[in-house]
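In response to a reviewer's request, we include the raw inputs and outputs for one of the modeled complexes. The two entities were modeled together in a single run.
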Amino acid sequence: MLYRETGQFKTTYRADQAIFPILQDKIGVLAILAFAVFVVPFAADNYLLETILVPVLVFSLAAIGLNILTGYCGQLSLGTGGFMACGAFFSYKLATAFPDLNLILVFLLAGLGTSVVGVLFGLPSLRIKGFYLAVATLAAQFFLIWVFNKFGWWTNDSPSGVISAPPREVLGFVVTSSEAHPISKYLFLVVLVAVLALVAKNLVRSRIGRSWMAIRDMDIAAEIIGIRPLVAKLSAFAVSSFYIGIAGGLWAFIYTGSVEALAFQIDRSFQVLFMVILGGLGSILGSFLGAIFIVLLPIALNVTMLAIDPTFSVALVSDMEFMLFGALIIFFLIVEPHGLARLWQIGKEKLRLWPFPY
Amino acid sequence: MRLKTLCLAAAGAAMLTVAGLPAQAAEQYVPLLVYKSGPYAPNGIPMAAGWEDYIKLINARDGGVNGVKLVTDECDTGYNNDRGVECYERLKKPTAAAFQPLSTGITYALLDRVAQDKIPLYTGGYGRTSASYGPVFPYVFTAPLTYWSGADIMVQYAKGQEGGSLKGKKIALVYHDSAYGKEPIPTLERLSKEEGFEFYKFPVAHPGLEQKSTWLQIGRQVKPDWVFMWGWGVMNSTAVKEAAAVGYPMDHFIGIWWSGAEPDVVPAGAAAKGYKALGLHLPGTDIQLLQDVLKYVYNGDEAKAKENAWGTVLYNRGLFLMAIEIEAIRQAQEMHGKGKELTGEQIRDGFENLNLTEDKLAAIGLKDFTKPIHITCEDHEGGGQAFVQQWDGEQWKKVSDWFSPHREALRAAYKEDALAYAKEKGITPRTCK
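The model returned the following structure tokens for the whole complex.
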């Protein structure tokens, strides 16, 4: 029905290797993007933009970052919160020390700084694997948070250890701090996240991405066919931390506007890890789906329950929210252990064969 | 049969809604950010009960503020900063009276937003200390006291107990390692230089259930003369238990006003006896306002009231904080028209001109409950006072006089910190007449 592919012939390798080899996919993604850029900012109210769409986008970026490391390269990491904190505090120091520095440059530099930290904490991955590596990355989580909590330099000696984003402009629009209009915040994020997601998608399809996947699937075999584990693993750590760092900066500057190191506790690492697992390991689409699921669902449950009956006590609603959310996570993992992205993939296969799916 | 009952119920509910629609008297919207779930719920629930009961009382006894009924809407933040922001955005309206986030972390996240949305942020006894400097933070109010004032009062009290000098003494601070717990550090560091005591810091990670090593260090190694605590939730009772386990003398252990309620000492049992904390207002039920609540909200049913935490420290705190917010609405009505629904911006003026004298406090049933508060454009702290209370194993007892912090030094510090913030944010401080 949707996928009538009659007449779509691929005559070059280039066309065969495109990100979206099926025309309908390409049109669909472009339509979603156009909808996100041209319709959503004007149709959605500030509440939706600021407290739902902005965090979904920020988390999507963090989930893409972790997905590169865990989903594509197979290195389990629990340091996501720490790396996000790096990005946040690096951006803050850069933005306050050099007030004239372009905001995009601030985020990119903060991302690069985070990737250096990521490589440093990725070094143990050359010797240890799996759960043991997860424990080693926990060190990054606790050490980094401790550093930002301990030394006043990171917060410009704020007595409470809270950093607050200074107002900064991109193309003449203020996008950080509460002075920014939700629409400009959202549009800036959509464009930035779309560009970075495109880069990530291409990266994982390239030689380097294939070497990550080879390491993930069997590192000894990969080594034998000539992939250097050192380069592959550390580059995965670097790229992953780059993305997570930028997500941390965006969290502090665009989402909450002010942040303390406590916001990037171990819970945050788990949250992003769950997004990746639920969304789908080794899938860029999955990163988005996971972020939407984890951020949107609790709030949606909460709001829906209150909409059904406003006389419910908020305490009951909050407790119900936890229970339903947990139940739904288990439900989706039973239905499809490979995540929401896999669910979509199966659906798509069925649609392509429709009306005679087998 | 089931379906029939369901349909009937739905029809009944629909009729009730329709019936409720007319009769549009003026109403004032009071949003409430509460936390009745999550690890801090034992402290959040009695506070929220105090708020709710005060609003019910005003509506039942006085028919609202000058006839303007108060309507509320709640959102559960779970003491979680991002959910706090989400709740704020969900509940905010131009006619919102004020927001009380009940969390220093959420306060920091909302500081800029409220100035943008023109809604007052009332952080009574918590929040960003330097927000007391009105010219930089026109929408934030910290009355009656800030954490820096609290630290100052604790040092004053310890000094009094030590016979007038703290030279060579050791003071330790056990604090929740968050924006909240870190607040008093600059003041204590300054005072340690001025008073000549040694100052030790002991951060405790959220939620504060693991304090063994902290207290071993305090009890066996540092052996401070005084321990101050900035704790919240389960951290408080854990600290009291651990202090008892290392044999630290309870009467030299003082908590801030958020570490001095029943949920903090009752779980620690007999070990908590003698533990001290600051108080912003009297504990107990022997207060006109509490009797009014009992009469108008609970119809004299004391057992039911007690079930709702009536008369506990945090419940009284909730009443107290809501009383100040409601008095600010009343003051704003004096300025912008009695009996009218006001905007947040107008209620801000009410906060800024709030002068709760002894007489006014007595008029709202809070005689001797707390000390007068006078907020001005320059000073959003309003000059409140605090005392030291002690747990006697059964209840909290006031054991000292009211203390006033050394405000000249503190105000200079507020101003310095606020101006640094203004510079970083590009805010031009307004001038006060």
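As requested, we also summarize the result in words. Chain A touches chain B at residues 46-47, 50-52, 55, 96, 149, 156, 159-162, 164, 166-167, 177-179, 255-260, 262-263, 265, 299, 302-303, 313-315, 317-319, 322 (CB under 8 Å). Chain A has a mean pLDDT of 91.
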